[in-house]
Amino acid sequence: MTTADLSSAGPGSGGVAGAATLRLSRTVVAAAVATMMIVVDLISFSQLIFSGPLAECRAAGVSAMLAAYMAGSLVFLALRRDVVISLSFFGAAAIVQAAIAAAVAEQLRAAGVTDPDSVGPIVLVTCGLSTAITGLVFALLGTLRASLLAQLLPFPVLMGFLAGVGLLLLRSGVQIGAQLADPLGALVGALVGALFGDLGPAAFAPIDPGALGRVGLTLGIGVCAFYLPRRRAHWTTYPAVILTSLLVVHLGLAWQGLGPAAAQAGGWLIDPLPPGSLLRVPAIGHLASFDPALMLPILPKIVTYVVVAVIVQILYVVSVELDLRREFNVDRVFVASGVANLLGSLFGSPVMGFDRTSTLQLHNIGGGRWLGRWLTLAAMAALLVFGAGIIALLPRPLAGGALVALGLGHLTNLALAGRAFLRWEIAIALVVCAATALFGATVGFLVGVVMAMLIFAVQYAQIPALRRVLTGAERRSSVIRAPDTAERLRAAGTRTRIYALQGYLFFLNAQAIHRRVVAESTGESTAGAADLRVLILDFRDCVGLDSSALVAFRKIGQRAEQRGFDVLLVHLGPTVLRQVARSRLTANARIRILDTLDAALREAEDTLLSETGTAGTDEVAPFARHVADRLGCAVGPADFAPYLAVRDLAAGETLMRQGEAADALYFLERGVVSIEMSLPGRPNLRLRTTTAGTVIGEIALVQGGRRTATALAESPCRVVGLDRAALARMEAERPDLALTFQRFLILELAGKLVDTNRLLEVELQ
Prior knowledge:
By secondary structure, the protein is an alpha/beta fold. The chain has 27 helices and 16 strands. It folds into 3 domains: 14-455, no CATH class; 466-612, STAS domain (Transcription Regulator spoIIAA); 623-764, Jelly Rolls, CATH 2.60.120.10. The strands form 4 sheets. The chain has a 5-stranded mixed beta sheet, sandwiched between helices. The protein has a 5-stranded mixed beta sheet with strand order 4-13-12-15-10, with no helix packed on it. Strands 9-16-11-14 form a 4-stranded antiparallel beta sheet. α4 packs antiparallel against α11 (299-324). The chain starts with a helix and ends with a helix. The chain crosses the membrane at residues 28-50, 62-79, 85-106, 118-141, 153-172, 211-228, 240-258, 302-322, 334-354, 374-394, 401-422, 428-458. It is found in: Membrane. Residues 643-730 form the Cyclic nucleotide-binding domain.
């Protein structure tokens, strides 16, 4: 019966007391299990980091880890009051920390410093500085709400790297559990000895049967600790594996008649810690004797250490969110972990943070309350203050098996994730995994970064840099021209190309733009035209470019000089504009910069019209002749004269104003008029520009209402106007002429509708 069942069993005091007792017992059990798991991790990681020449410094390392754990737990209790979170050290990061500690010890040995009392404090200071840097990164990511940026590494690279770390954990676990410096070589030697006996190669020395037994026991415990909790998802499974391992080893030792001292000498139990309290002077107290030059050779390892810790923390938080079906504030967790590691660095502790397994155990058993955390904290404090002699009873195969289980978890994660990987993703993951396992975590991380860059470059290059390619016939400027002029532009519009660029331009995709220009200018493109006259490059959707892209544009400029076409750059952002200016790209007379696409289209159209001999904006189009040409009928100026009002406008004069009564249309016989809309709190918005031979305000004549825009003369203009009263008089006096005018009006409206539809189709492509 669950706690909820008991509490609802009845209103009596007995039921309430029973429920309270059950809750308390579950909390105590949860705290005990979490403590057991954390102690096993602590001993395993201390054996991993402080091994070989650093073995005599292990007591100081355990002291630092216990003190840091207590300080970090208090931080999480203060900052994460809404949910109980268990803290622990990161196994994947401990592998890198072990490499850092070994590298510092080797530097000291090369300098002639071998005394453990001198080496230990310096190694702890180095570990503390590495953890302090990690804590600062954690706190910064959380404060800036940028913790998820750590997931920028592609998933295959991430899984491959962690799988490689898993192989390193497997090797380290067997090393610790069997007390073998080279477990793989020892196993190969045992295999060769079994196959060839004394005839085997002399390089393979026979392995001690006891060591071989410890290897098997370590692997067996690791497999059970990994597999059984997954097979039987119950909170008792993992503690049962630990307790069973303890029982089996100690029963075996008792059967062999080995006491604790003999078992430790034989490699079955971990080395004892000094008796008495483990309280030590924090590593920060030895900072004055630390030589900063020791940090330089290990900086790549520290960077790897930080990245691994950040990645593991994110994976743990996301995993617990899924398992507990509740949301955590990832950034707040990072802030808490950052502060905890900054405090832990004072003692020289490895990196720690939100732990997945022990947190789930606390919640699944029912210890997800403040009391469970305090009980765990009290147990760790007791080990620190009163000594950890009991830890000496921990079997080496159990400490090594914990690392083996952790390594198997990383390898299994790669196998499970690989089901959804593509073949090339699997290959990348295996390459990163192999590099990490063979050459260490730092080299593996660097290989992963290189692979991530290659993945990004190759995948991003698949996104076309040209979002859209149009011709001047498909996309016109906002200038409204006379029908015959517009027709000439449509015919010559294929000589204008508009390239809408997108994304970030770099060495892979920028060359595609150059190749397209070469094809356009030589007639090798699908358009088949080699008479390119104007190339417009629209940077509106371009987020940036690198120096190699500027080289591609310089080559385009050289091509423009050879083939005689202009290159117009539009919508350049401030950064790109500075890059173009610094590269002196516009020193080429064929390359020019304009503010907008419309300005570039206007310049391209003026260029094409000037080359076809059209007067452009200086042309004159009398109204009567224009109507006669459009309709193919015989009407003259004398027919329309009684109904038209002629106006001459100076440059800057207003033809009609936004908001005025709309009761007339105007035909522009000479000059240029711009149509602008006034918007509150913003500069006037230019809608279009009209030239000679165009109609303005025709809808107003038909519909009435108010003017929706203002018309301003850009140059000296001559316009003729026809208002509603004059049209009514024309219909009464000259119905034939009124019918002709209405046919003309229908053609004008139809032409503008066709242009609008064409523009809409282009924008929707």
